[in-house]
Amino acid sequence: MTDRTDLPATGSPPLRHLLDMSNLSRDAIEEIFRTADSFVSVGARQVRKVPLLRGKTIVLLFFEPSTRTRTTFEIAAKRLSADVVTINTSVSATAKGESLLDTVRTLQAMQSDMFVVRHRDSGVPHLIARHVDPGVSVINAGDGWHAHPTQALLDMYTIRQHKGDLAPLSVAIVGDILHSRVARTQIAALGRLGVTDIRVVAPKTLLPQEIASLGVRVFHQLDRGLADADVVMTLRLQRERMSSALLPSEREYFRFYGLTPKSLRAAKPDAIILHPGPINRGVEIDSVVADGPGSVILPQVSNGIAIRMAVMALAAGPTPRQQPVESETPR
Ligand code: CP
């Protein structure tokens, strides 16, 4: 028995790099979703593998900690039958002073086909993309405050799974917007998918100056921001990116901005709750909410595999064929 999954038919240009949302049209996002749909079924098979990236080498280059993104990229690449190498930057030659681009050139000399990059500095995946050989892809796995495109895609995919078409939904993003590459990318993705009611809810100290230009409504009071929301996405306080005390205390923050059964009464009764993780219980979210019936936090994690398979397959896979094959094909 041979596993076989073809990519859906497409008229879009091929995806080479995925650095942020700017080069993703609505059609391209929907193509990623259709491709991910076919990979969700791969996850339900006894043998969770397809041969699309057999013979390709994918390097995971993470200069910042990660559990969800790194692991789901690795699982996704293995399910696509690629050879995967994860570079532990704390014990690589980076620790001996090798420059970023020399590390990339070195790994490229080993016939790497794709780099998946996370870095604390905004713009690093773009820099790498400008220096790799033709035919080598770069996928941004989160850079500084700038972007985290596969996170936003899996968030949108999870909303679509639970609510259908996103355009008519009211979506609230709550928390540390200032330091959040996830929030910036979510706002861009929501706009691209036609959502017009996008709210951000945060204290003034946790909002970026440019927020007014992003096409969102700004709220400082949680109950107002959540009023009749269909979707509530909360965020971790990114202490590691705060250079000064922006909040009196975590206890105070939870009191005014924490998602609790009480504060969520303002949202629609069937509202879904998302969080990119890692979650800090009792800081931005109560355990009753995180583990409750409206929470789709763990489905987000699972969807990360299918979305990352789709992105990698579209970037480095064979030319799409005309007929999608949804299930195992006996030979
Ligand atoms: N959401 C997210 O990026 O989580 P990790 O830091 O665990 O990858």
Report on this structure:
The protein has 331 residues and is an alpha/beta fold. Helix content is 34%, strand content 14%. It folds into two domains: 137 residues, Aspartate/ornithine carbamoyltransferase (Rossmann fold, 3-Layer(aba) Sandwich); 149 residues, Aspartate/ornithine carbamoyltransferase (Rossmann fold, 3-Layer(aba) Sandwich). It has a five-stranded parallel sheet with strand order 7-6-5-8-9. The protein has a four-stranded parallel sheet with strand order 2-1-3-4, with helices on both faces. Helix 4 links the parallel strand 3 and strand 4. The site of phosphoric acid mono(formamide)ester has 9 residues, from helix 2.
